[in-house]
Amino acid sequence: MATHKILDFNKCTPTELANTCSVKPKLDDFRVSFPDLQLELYTSQTISEPDKRACCSLVRTNLKDLYEKSSWGWSEDRKYEEMNDEAARFILIRSKQAQEGPLLAFVSYQVVDEENEAVMYCYEVQLDVGLRGQGIGTRLMGLVEALAVDHRLHRSMLTAFVANNAAMSFYKRLGYVTDSTSPKPRLLRGRKVFADYVILSKALQRADDQA
């Protein structure tokens, strides 16, 4: 079942995804609320190389310090490889006023198999500092969750740094909780050691599933 859902989702073009019943109203609302911003959907095959590099640059600007302090360390090459994954999908936001203007925000996501369940995994949601505080991050997450709901996925997941207090508060407000797959504390020389990241998840449900 998980494999079928993943394959079905991966067959969809960006245009098909943008026109599903839960996503289209959210896209229309975004364009009305932010007329100066341009929002576009891409796959890893349709996104341009400059845009992929711009995505990496935004991650570096926002999170490099946290990566360097973590057990993972920072590697822009590794982040770029992640964005080249065949199943990766993107939603990009830039200014309408500048032709091929700079990337201002993006979210990257894909449908993955998590313990034999197809789930929506959000890999990145990154905003330029000038776009924060306007509800854009919430709308981007809402779009990703709507894509999941329209493809009958029942869970959205993501990974966050424990030290990223702003992100942790943001995801908590959206209804994300620590997932059962998140790493547990471990004992090391008699002391409890906690992971520097947490896996969060949110249960999703279609309106017609609630009837």
UniProtKB/TrEMBL annotation:
Residues of the N-acetyltransferase domain: 53-205
Gene Ontology molecular-function annotations: histone H2A acetyltransferase activity; histone H4 acetyltransferase activity; protein N-terminal-serine acetyltransferase activity
Alphabetized SUPFAM superfamilies for the sequence: Acyl-CoA N-acyltransferases (Nat)
Domain of life per record: Eukaryota
Swiss-Prot/TrEMBL catalytic activity: N-terminal L-seryl-[histone H4] + acetyl-CoA = N-terminal N(alpha)-acetyl-L-seryl-[histone H4] + CoA + H(+); N-terminal L-seryl-[histone H2A] + acetyl-CoA = N-terminal N(alpha)-acetyl-L-seryl-[histone H2A] + CoA + H(+)
EC number: 2.3.1.257
UniProt keyword annotations, A-Z: Acyltransferase, Cytoplasm, Nucleus, Transferase
GO CC terms of this entry: cytoplasm; nucleus
The keyword Transferase is annotated on this UniProt entry: yes
One Pfam family cited in the UniProt record for this chain: Acetyltransf_1
InterPro entries: Acyl_CoA_acyltransferase (IPR016181), GNAT_dom (IPR000182), NAA40 (IPR039949)
Keyword NADP among record annotations: no
Localization (cell): Cytoplasm; Nucleus
Family classification: Belongs to the acetyltransferase family. NAA40 subfamily.
Protein name per the record: N-alpha-acetyltransferase 40
